[in-house]
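Z., the sequence and structure:
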Amino acid sequence: MATSKSLHLELKNLDQESQIPLNRTPTSPSEQYYRSIFDRADANKDGAVTPHELEVVVDRLSLTDEPPSQDFIRQIHKMADKNQDGRLDFDEFVTMIKTQPLFRKIVTRYVNFILPRRKLGAVDVTQVDGFGGEYEDQYKFCPPKVGMVIISVIELIFFFIDEYRERNSTMFASGPMAQLFIYDPERRYEAWRYLTYMFVHIGYLHLVVNLVVQVFLGIPLEMVHSWWRVLLVYVTGVVAGSLGTSITDPKAKLAGASGGVYSLITAHIATIIMNWSQMSMPFVQLAIFLLITGVDVGNSIYNRYWANLDEPIGYMAHFSGALAGLLVGICVLRNLKITKKENIIWWVSIALYLVLMLVAILWNIFYTDYFPTQK
């Protein structure tokens, strides 16, 4: 909390130095982070910062220290408000930051804590790129992101209905929900099974792993791209998983949401590709998600074909879901700045996805001899 003496000195300093010219270049990196902070403070996006909005942003940017008093902040606001209209426009806001030690300290701490730094010549200039800048600013916590939570609750309900009706039925997919909704190649005419198998899980471990992964990967995507886009990616991954499995392993039954889960993994890859210049260290992020996907799919393939392990894992559902998540993610997830190159990637992705889906659907409809006899 500021003392009366320190308050007097701060205000005197502001009054003496507020006439310092800004000498700013509109496109300079320094103005970029000033604009980023101004946009955060301007909660109602009317182009000006009120005393209350200034209090809120100071509280946020103070990070770990106790923020100054409201009276202190309001007096600073009044001194910086040169036209005395009760609001700070962008120039007044920047002048306040440049001439007021308190705000310089807060902004410096904020910049060092959040935003990546880059050397330009001999000057260390803070950029707005990356998770600390343009992409990070897209994260929204309200309203709550519940798309993946709702899907997870439905999967839990299906699981416990079967477990309640017949103990241990979930280990053998013998419960009523499993029998009705699992993907069964002998009941391919019941088209809903290509999607609803995602609600059926074999055993507690299978369920828990899928729930944890889809919630922790899905909610961050929803915070930037909205629930319906993420749900669309998830559903297309599930359907691609069953179609891919039907073609590569026509006698296999399929249960679980792994196709959707893997679509969420590669959806993160898609958003990295399409927002490359807005992200910090995109190479590292991309490598992490590629490693996760490659290790799991590669391990499943090795165990089945080289190690001769009889694992009931539909690796093709994983791979197909991952491919769908990448292609659909590129098409439907938000791209903050569209370049000519990214526009080409968008068209290639949507064309490739539609071709693959059309081939798989037509194969299932017309190549009936390839599949087991229908019940």
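Residues 57 and 63 are 10 Å apart (CA to CA). Confidence is low (pLDDT under 50) at residues 1-27, 110-133.

Let me know what you think.
H.
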